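Next comes one such specimen:
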Amino acid sequence: MEEFISSIDVKINENDKDMCDAEILYDEITEALMAMSKNKSPGTDGLTTEFYCKFYDCLRNILCHVYNSIYDENILSRSMRAGVLSLIYKKKGDRRILKNYRPISLLQVDYKILARIMANRFKKVLPTIISENQTCCIIGRDISNNIANVRDIITLVENDELEGYIVKIDQEKAFDRESHEFIFKTLKKFGFGDVFIKWIEIFYTRINSCVKCNGFLTPYFCVDNGIRQGCPISALLYVLAAETLQCNIRKNVNISGIKIPNTTDEALIFQHADDTTLTVSDKSSIDEIFKVFEMYEASSGAKINRQKSEILPIGKGRIADNEKNKYNLQVCENYILLLGVYVGKDKTVCDHLNWSGKVSKIKSLLNMWMQRQLTIQGRVNVISSLFMSRLWYSLFVTSMPDQVLRDIKTACVSFVWNNGAHLVKYNTIIDQKCNGGLQLPDIESKMYAFRLKFLARFLDKNL
């Protein structure tokens, strides 16, 4: 563990260290509470976020006193340590297999306020110590960056006829396997102060959980490993721990990324929380990657899920049949699924995979809603709130083919007019209500707006 963590060569500055170690202020409690989502399931005490907001003036001093007592006594209250695990189906795989469920911890709001206070401090520091190619939970970074980068690398390697390999690593129950000791030592190595580290240790001291199953709660059991999904600071802690993997891979001289033309840089590793994608220029680098992962597994408790990990050879890259058994990974021929979006050698094939299912689903749902007696404005509201949200993520990270745009636009307009005559032009119904329109979302305008966000990030970085 010590050897793996020793690759970290950056530390937070003294001002950030002092900020993280500072006493909890009333303003921080207020900020944390007001930022919390409403209408969410409470913890074991049944007290919701709305309850704390309603009686905040009465509870503010009490909360501050409780948090100070927790720090002095080095342990959370019994109720704060308890979590109720609710198993959420991942919407893929056999429902009878436990690994196809994600455990979400229902935690008390008073604990979540405290954890969010520390998370708010943590967020301000992370951009200074986490590599640019980690996009999860870092202010100013977006998941679309990684997808765009990998797509551009594939285009570069294919056009220049280079040798390259896209290696996508899936980790099994990444959050649940993370070692507490590894997190604490990583925090220390990054230069965090004793006070902040003590708070994180308190969050994981003698914690326990039970499982909600068919309306009943199981007996409580100790949680000695893993970070709780549902805790405001969990994802941030995981990102910090995952940075050690990035540091070790970048410092390994036997791993070669894809050279970026006209620069001294190379594209090598892209992360979004536990989703790790590597772009390497030779097969010997693949062998070396798994040596680094073996060290990471031994240090942090992580485990590669080889059944879901994949390799995509690009350009002149080739994986022979006998090598497939050597790597024990899925070898893709033309495309790979990256963060929910297909990218690969043939853009037409990827566009079809990315959009055909969405078009069919939207048409099917529109036909179902057609049976209801809705006003014109009601149909517009259905399209806006229920259907368009299914498109935004894919539209943000990849272009929509012209034919798909026409198909969706036709289906939506036909739904608005209940399959009857189009009484008003399309340009009118997408206009503002004050101009006589219906404010029907215009997909093409949304697509251009997303492209402008890419341009804005580029300009902000280069000004």
